[in-house]
Amino acid sequence: MSRAIPSVLVLHGPNLNLLGTREPDIYGATTLAALNAQLESDATELGLRLHAQQANGEGELVDALHNAVGTHAGVVFNPGAYTHTSVALHDAIRAIEIPVLEVHLSNLYKREDFRQRSLTGAACIGVIMGFGPDAYRLALHQLHRRLGADP
After folding, report:
1. What one-character DSSP code corresponds to residue 17?
2. Which DSSP string do the residues of 56-94 spell out, in sequence order?
3. Which of 97, 59, 103 is nearest to 79 (CA)?
4. Residue range 46-85, pLDDT digits in tens
5. Which of 27, 82, 90, 136 is labelled catalytic?
6. In a domain, 116, yes or no
7. Coil, strand, or helix at residue 44?
8. 27 included as an active-site residue
9. Which of these, 12, 65, 71, 135, could form a disulfide with 92 (CB 3.0-4.6 Å)?
10. pTM of the predicted model, to two decimals?
């Protein structure tokens, strides 16, 4: 009997559509398309299906989290600036019964004071930050382990 291939949602928040051009000294030169292509390749190697989605609006991100239930086994989520302000996203993460792992390209603790608190991270199974695009890759690998998927 074959096992269903687990699906993972990679959810990118506001302004991440500008990766590669927006403040490359902070966020790097990798574009969102290149990042998603690398994650797709990693997911295939891990035996996962990957769906990547980007939204700038808080409500769209809440909807994507809600819609992940029954479709995806887990979520890798970069809430962008909503990390520091969104009780709605915190509540949406807590409301769904699938693991959500928060990621950030930069190290929040080396940033401005207002960026050093994560409302959303408190609702996640963990937070990986400061490794550029590799933060996403590390999160995908960790989520794979958490899901107990075959290598």
Report:
1. G
2. SSHHHHHHHHHHHTTT-SEEEEE-GGGGGT-HHHHHHHH
3. 103
4. 999 999 999 999 999 999 999 999 999 999 999 999 998 8
5. 27
6. yes
7. helix
8. yes
9. 65
10. 0.91
